[in-house]
Amino acid sequence: MAPPQHDPRRPYKRAAISDQQRRRDSALRTQSARRADAQARARSLANSLLSPPSSSSDDQPPASPEAHGDDPAVAEVAAAAAKLRGPDQRRRFARQIMLPEWMVDAPPHLARDWHVCARPAGKRCLVMSSNGITISRLRNGTILHRFPSALPNGSKRGISGPASSYSILDCIFHEPDETYYIVDMICWRGYSLYDCTAEFRFFWVNSKLTETAAGDPPSTYHRYRFSAVSMYESTLEGLQAAYSLSTPYVKDGLLFYNKHAHYQSGITPLTLVWKDETCSQYVLDTDSEGQVPTEQHVVLELQEDGKLITSDDPPIVFGSLNSEFVQKSNLRPGNLLRFSVRDESVKLVDGKMEIGELQFVGKLNRSRNFADSHSKVLFQYAARHASLRIEDLIASVQSNSMEVESTDIEMQD
């Protein structure tokens, strides 16, 4: 992992190919407006995680009334969530986790403003402990595991405080060692961390986890082990550690968190994922047979008017289907469709990707309930042509350090 060769007197700059930085700046400016009702969102989410609609295939008894507390707004939100069915329910759960954009440009001030960790390979899920039980739910809302744990109020043994007190963790379940690796913390003992900075949340993950036996080996009252991922400053040393050091889990790329970012449901440019062949087995998307196709594939959602959109908010339109083709192919609004993309039909305009022609491949099965994001499509395109390399990230960090040193020298003068 040797640093790239470049003139040390000139700050490193890689030509920007996306508008990610504009979205990052905007997200930081507007996140304070989303602080309202953070506690209500957390409590309604806790209730929804425990109590799916009665039509769900994994029916559970309704949560006790005290799960709502005395807040009528919380009860109203939870009641509305309980009425959701099928795709609507799965879509709601899919939007509860903070999802990273794919890094196509190295952020400025990477060393100063960002954390980095090696992302575990596995199943992304929300884990909630309350009322003597622990439940993990996948992004589509289905239950992965129902088990006792050493998390607060996560088993019938040793319940402390109100029985309805809950904790919600953002985890990746790593099947080879049956461990839940914690990548973020949303709530702890009923205290919401939605409007706390990532730097504070990571501090709490490490400090609060040691207060419990959640990191202990499995036992009768603790079915799965929990472990916090090692989080580093995105300095040269931290980046090298996340990229090169061995981990107890299989790596699937690097995760970057802006230190000042709050926990935001859905896709955010303040969290980024990056991959290459060294730190991930799966850099390029595969087809239904597990093979990397000759042409890039994208997954888009079909709308009522025939438009094909990404999962971004707001979504980006990549094309459309005429009504005759939709009817002939027995397609419906909300279907996720796979398309192939020819290189010659792709253009980059003002940091965004435009696709001139989409070739229909087929409809996806129901196990997936979200389309690709724009950043993922752009990352996949770049990975086939001129990907962002680890050397680029190192050079960006070194350039940041040079700029800081230069500023310090000017101030001393």
TrEMBL record:
- Please provide, alphabetically and separated by semicolons, the GO molecular function terms listed in this UniProt record: RNA binding
Q: Name one GO cellular component term.
A: nucleus
Q: Where is the composition biased (Low complexity)?
A: 41-61
Q: Which family does it belong to?
A: Belongs to the snurportin family.
Q: Which CDD domains match?
A: Snurportin-1_C
Question: What is the protein name given in its UniProt record?
Answer: Snurportin-1
Subcellular localization: Cytoplasm; Nucleus
Instruction: Tell me which residues make up the Snurportin-1 m3G cap-binding domain.
Output: 96-271
Q: Which Gene3D superfamilies match?
A: DNA ligase/mRNA capping enzyme
Q: Where is the composition biased (Basic and acidic residues)?
A: 1-10
Name the InterPro entries for this protein.
Snurportin-1 (IPR017336), Snurportin1_C (IPR047857)
Q: Which Pfam families match?
A: SPN1_m3Gcap_bd
SUPFAM superfamilies for this protein: DNA ligase/mRNA capping enzyme, catalytic domain
- The main place the protein resides is cytoplasm
Q: Where is this region: Disordered?
A: 1-71
Q: Which GO terms describe its biological process?
A: snRNA import into nucleus
The scientific name of the source species is Lolium multiflorum
